[in-house]
């Protein structure tokens, strides 16, 4: 699960904001990869050739256009700044990047659905563990070092901070759940995203990432610990009003909503 530490002591308010921005972007990436994983695995199990091809293209596009550029930006900016403090950690993170790249290559070249599903499942697990190390081990070290201005290092780097325009990555007829929290399919076959166990600090970003992976006409069942009105307002703004919300359950233990991109 892509987590974030409860408290990061930073050397400046600007660096604290930079850490939060990176963690939020990590949550979005994990959310999108989880959604695309659910889509691709479901397509592979369905034995529907066209559905698999769409899901496969979407997953490969996300990995090559967003996930790998994110990793490359880390290698250019974050890791050199951290090497003097955490040499072995940085070496380990670089090794994980090689493994991530290898899994993306496997995913890209996979022609059989079962191989593609296996590759993206492995990629999702490795990526979430990798993000946890960055959030909980690497970023705090950089944020606490007064000799490193994290906000300056990361200024304008949308690959690390987010903020770039998102293209729709999922097939237009399937919505998908998120992998860093309980994720699966509802009884109706619509993928389900349960964010009740996701830390509040990254909960909205996780949903943003998952919904970004939904194409026009696709749906996602969101399970929340309360009525997510602030989140819905943000989603509506992010989707330029192209979202339909249907309440399936209204507490007290859980709120279940079907979110559809229109």
TrEMBL record:
InterPro entries, per database record: DUF2249 (IPR018720), Hemerythrin-like (IPR012312)
Source species, domain of life: Bacteria
Stretch list, region Disordered: 165-189
Pfam families the UniProt entry points to: DUF2249, Hemerythrin
Residue span, Hemerythrin-like domain: 18-142
Segments of skewed composition (Basic and acidic residues): 165-176
Ranges of residues in domain DUF2249: 192-261
Descriptive protein name: Uncharacterized protein (DUF2249 family)/iron-sulfur cluster repair protein YtfE (RIC family)
The species this protein was found in: Saccharomonospora amisosensis
């Amino acid at each position: 699960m892509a987590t974030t530490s409860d408290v990061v002591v930073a050397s400046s308010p600007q660096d604290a904001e930079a850490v939060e921005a990176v963690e939020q972007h990590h949550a979005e990436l994990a959310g999108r990869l989880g959604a695309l994983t659910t889509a691709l695995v479901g397509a592979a199990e369905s034995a529907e050739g066209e559905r698999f091809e769409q899901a496969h293209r979407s997953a490969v596009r996300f990995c090559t256009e967003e996930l790998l550029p994110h990793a490359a930006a880390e290698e250019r900016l974050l890791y050199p700044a951290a090497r003097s403090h955490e040499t072995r950690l940085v070496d380990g993170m670089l090794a994980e990047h090689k493994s991530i790249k290898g899994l993306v290559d496997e995913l890209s070249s996979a022609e059989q659905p079962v191989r593609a599903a296996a590759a993206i499942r492995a990629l999702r697990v490795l990526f979430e563990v990798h993000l946890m190390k960055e959030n909980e081990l690497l970023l705090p070290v950089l944020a606490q070092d007064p000799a490193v201005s994290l906000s300056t290092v990361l200024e304008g780097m949308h690959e690390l901070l987010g903020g770039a325009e998102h293209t729709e990555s999922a097939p237009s007829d399937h919505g998908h759940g998120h992998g860093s929290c309980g994720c699966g399919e509802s009884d109706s076959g619509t993928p389900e995203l349960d964010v009740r166990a996701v830390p509040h600090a990254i909960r909205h970003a996780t949903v943003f990432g998952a919904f970004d992976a939904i194409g026009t006409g696709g749906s996602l069942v969101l399970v929340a610990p309360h009525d997510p009105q602030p989140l819905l307002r943000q989603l509506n703004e992010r989707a330029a009003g192209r979202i339909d919300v249907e309440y399936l359950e209204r507490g007290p233990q859980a709120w279940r909503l079907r979110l559809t991109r229109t």
